[in-house]
Amino acid sequence: MGNIIRIGMADLKASHHPAILTTLGLGSCVGIALYDRTTKIVGLAHAMLPDSSQVKNKTNAAKFVDTAIELLVKEMLSLGASKKRIVAKLAGGAQMFTFTQGAELMRIGQRNVAAAKSKLESLDIPVVSEDTGGNYGRTVELDSESGMLLIRTIGYGTKQI
Questions:
Q1: Given a cut of 60, is residue 109 above it in pLDDT?
Q2: What's residue 148's pLDDT?
Q3: What SS3 state is found at 86?
């Protein structure tokens, strides 16, 4: 089964096998799950905002999608993962509230997912599956044994990607 490692909001962790990385309450935040199939090294980030370049206070790299992915990859490589073997799965990025037109800035969920895809693409890390969007929260568990991402929702059941 491995250790269960909890990741908070604006947080990230990487681990050797065996481990289960879990984060609760992904709403508009995006969960970025990374997996090296050969070494079974896993990483999970719970990022809140799409882009660190718009913000002065960047002390917490895990808060932003772009810097969280960079840091998570770096941590996985330091544990022995190979960048060319890492694949990504995404969860979250929900639209938790309804806004009237002109609220593009408020569409944080969509922007988080788009930022994650863009950053991963720039690093040549393929997104192999995702469970994003909607208007409900998700709790995820990443299993280092299989790379399976278990997604639990309230009212929308449980699924594996």
A1: yes
A2: 97
A3: strand
- What DSSP state is assigned to residue 94? -
User: Can you tell me the distance from the alpha carbon of 68 to that of 119, in angstroms, rounded to the nearest whole number?
Assistant: 10
C-alpha–C-alpha distance, residues 11 and 59, integer Å: 12
29 is a catalytic site residue:
yes
Q: What span, in angstroms and rounded, lies between the C-alpha atoms of 58 and 64? A: 8
Taking only the tens place, the pLDDT of each residue in 20-76 is 999 999 999 999 999 999 999 999 999 999 999 877 777 899 999 999 999 999 999
Amino acid letter, residue 157: G
Domain annotation for the chain: domains and CATH numbers: 3-160 (3.30.1330.200)
DSSP H stretches of helix in the chain: 65-79, 108-122
In residues, how long is the chain?
161
Q: Which residue has the tokens 């289960």?
A: 20
The letter for the amino acid at 61 is A
Q: Which of 14, 20, 26, 29 is catalytic?
A: 29
**Cα 135 to Cα 39: distance, rounded to the nearest angstrom:** 35
